[in-house]
Specification:
Blueprint (H helix, E strand, L loop, with lengths): L1 H8 L9 E2 L8 E2 L20 E4 L27 E4 L3 H5 L11 H4 L2 H28 L2 H4 L9
Parallel strand pairs: 3-4
Antiparallel strand pairs: 1-2
Length: about 150
């Protein structure tokens, strides 16, 4: 069910239709959860099994909308059954400006530079996605799974 789960994780409410009938998942509509908050500190459920959490950073900080408050860390119990799918630090370091594009690019880059930068990153993420799918299909993905690297309470 990896294909439909990934599609659902990018289904932004009001922008992209959600995904239903994910094999092995409870009935319902599945969408990107960013409308609530981008970093959660709650049980993802279900009680049994694993939760796939594709994200652009490897360290979720609870209350992303309160990001000015320092020292926030998630509870360990919130991530007991979570498998996060994130780009490696070396992947990000090799992107232009050594970072993932963000809203601030509109403030600091002119349109031509920003568009070229974002298009370059899109090409690189396409390559990353192809690598990921090869790893899923040939079974080598299991070798890349590591414990979550962030501090938890």
């Amino acid at each position: 069910n990896i294909h439909t789960a990934l599609l659902a994780s990018g289904s932004i409410p009001v922008v992209i239709e959600g995904v239903q009938q994910i094999e092995g998942a409870p009935a319902g509509m599945y969408r990107d959860g960013g409308i609530i908050d981008y970093h959660f500190d709650l049980s993802f459920g279900p009680d049994d099994g694993l939760v796939l959490y594709p994200h652009f950073y490897d360290k979720p900080i609870p209350g992303w909308f309160d990001k000015g408050l320092k020292g926030r860390v998630p509870h360990r119990s919130s991530y007991d059954n979570v498998v996060m799918l994130v780009p490696s630090a070396s992947f990000v370091a090799n992107l232009p400006y050594s970072k993932i594009p963000d809203r601030k690019d509109f403030e600091v880059l002119d349109a031509k530079t920003r568009i070229q930068y974002w298009q370059t990153v899109l090409k690189e993420t396409d390559r990353l996605g192809e690598y990921f799918m090869r790893a899923v299909n040939d079974g080598s993905l299991v070798d890349a799974i590591k414990p979550l690297p962030f501090k938890m309470i």
